[in-house]
Amino acid sequence: MGTIAKTTLITCIAILATGCASAPYPAGQEASAGDLVKPHNDREFSVVRKTSGISQASLIYARSVYENPVNRPVSHFATLGSLALKSTGGLLRRVAIGTTQMPALTGDIPVVANAEPMDTEAFEKTLDRITGTRNDTGKIKFLVDGDEYFGRLMETIEGSEKSIDIRTYIFDNDDFAVAMADYLKERSEEVRVRVMVDGIGNMLALQADPESLPDDHEHPLSMNMYMEWESDIKVRKMTNPWTVGDHTKTTIIDEKIAFVGGMNVGREYRYDWHDIMMEVTGPVVDQLQFESDKAWARGSLFGDLANAVRFLQGKNENADRDGYPVRILQTKNFDSQIHKAQIAAIQNAQSHIIIENAYFSDDRTIYELAKARRRGVDVRVIIPSKGNHGPLNASNKVTINKLLEHGIRVYEYPGMSHVKAAIYDGWICVGSANFDKLSLKINKELNLATSDPATVDALLNQVFIPDLKVSREIVEPVEVPMTAYIYEIAVDELL
């Protein structure tokens, strides 16, 4: 049997498996802003998780290989070309750093210099040049952990009058996500509701349950079908070649209030993990809405054409017109703005650098942090003690020893921290991007950055100071099995 025939057969089986399942939704489910998670009674279906994974993976594979080149030929081949170029360049840089530059960083590590912070006004001009971006105007409020974020999110969803646009890597099928979907169904009767998820990320997430999930929860087989069933919600799934994912997390209400950060929709983000989101207002929301609209267009039939049409229409002006300078930074094909900006921030920092991130393996970043520490900058890194991916946890161990070798202070947050934030003197960068190759070079990511003093202080006081207080400082090299080095190479080069 030929390859095309095999794929067609697999796809047909997957469609049948999905279509022949019992009802893709639970009966009699209601939700409210005040109490999302309710008992799940009178279920009409059961799910075989393994079968679900196989069917969804088959569909994603078929779409990526055969459908996308037809529907989105420009973005499809641009993604593959960008992936090949960045992978080759990353490997060459890794070899160069490891064989010529890192060994040169030897000798005594100086004491912290207590120098004056960098000139943020001059640095913002540097970012204009090296990233090709410009500051917009807006206001940022940090929402720490699931209680703060989802409580505030539900308030805005409840008060929405026009639209709810969700762009997320994962919309899980656990009890919390189902309850969230139920509430969105209710709101879709009155306002436009659009949900866009990443095909690969969502498929992988649906096969792994958080530890806190109730034993009696039964999972919808397809969250797309579940959300669209007897509702006006519109759902699109973005599929991309290979491992390229849309890792962006934004929710925009009435084109006036945006939520940006690292939280997906699922139980672990609501109850289990430490994480932050930003509530954003002001003109920058218009640009965030524009980016969301373009992503939605790309996910449609003949997405390249639809994206071009939406691009030519330009952004609308709906948000309030006040705020301070806020910059949108992205990772996209041939343009790694987040990486460029943070490398420049490390190079320009004079006083202190504090980073908190779950997945930390990028060699260029580690090298620049080592150089910063050796010129007297106080460099501190917080990573989780208990991550959610074995290979990535192993990779983090390799990173810990690299950082310690160069005098960088490393802290272990108790439990899983999914925070993706950094302070470089008086400039901050927060969003969806990890410090690994996937986020910095391959996936679609979105961060916000600002040098507004009050916002910088808010991030320091709401996130970093509390997290440093509860974290354990690692002062001795950790034991690293040989497999960890293999994982580290795989994470940073093969993905």
Mean pLDDT across residues: 85
At the fourth level of CATH, the homologous superfamily of the largest domain is Endonuclease Chain A
CATH class of the largest domain: Alpha Beta
User: Nearest-angstrom radius of gyration?
Assistant: 22 Å
Total of DSSP H or I helical runs spanning 4+ residues: 17
Characterise this structure.
By secondary structure, the chain is α+β, with helices and mostly antiparallel strands. The protein has helices at residues 3-19, 49-71, 73-101, 120-131, 145-158, 175-187, 199-205, 223-228, 267-272, 284-298, 303-313, 337-348, 363-374, 390-405, 437-442, 453-470, 482-494, and strands at residues 136-144, 163-168, 192-198, 234-238, 250-253, 257-261, 276-281, 324-332, 335-336, 352-356, 378-384, 409-413, 421-424, 427-431, 445-450, 472-474. It has a 16-stranded mixed β-sheet that branches. Helix 4 (120-131) packs antiparallel against helix 12 (337-348). Residues 1-34 and 38-49 have low confidence and may be disordered.
